[in-house]
Amino acid sequence: MSSSAPTTVPPTAVAGKYLTVGLGEESYAVSVLKVREIIRIQKIIPVPQMPPSIKGVINLRGRVIPILDLRTHFGLPAETTAHTCIIVVQLLGPAGNALLMGLIVDAVQDVALITAAEIEPAPEFGASVRADYLLGLAKNKGQVRLLLNLDRVIDPAAVDTLAAS
Predict the structure, then answer these.
(1) How many domains does the chain have?
(2) pLDDT score of 4
(3) For strand 119-120 and strand 134-140, is the pairing parallel, antiparallel, or unpaired?
(4) Which of 51, 67, 75, 116 is the most exposed place for a label (fewest CB within 10 A)?
């Protein structure tokens, strides 16, 4: 399977509780099993020569946490509002170790139970468009929510390198 192909995961394997977040006018969902905490936006220390979506690091109770701006990562214009916050998630690193990462989002919406019946596979966009970061699309509470595969959205090797610095 090429890296641009969507991840084919059965809806029953993807169903569960999700933290839903807003980015612009869209609603995205992240498995609550990956979420460690939600914090207010705070001073981010820039790290030179990082991709534009990696904003830098924060010190969270003595731990250095890399911060990724999901808006920038998805090609949306950067914007900060009173509701902008950081979602701290735990990812699986390249060596199988647990890595913490902060994701800047516009707003936290709610926690939703998304059933298998509400989930459709991610659409095929063709070889030139990456959609492997989508687990699927959920029609839930009158909205279409994009179910994010955080292990594909974020390059764990880059996070591991940044966290080690």
Answers:
(1) 1
(2) 43
(3) antiparallel
(4) 75
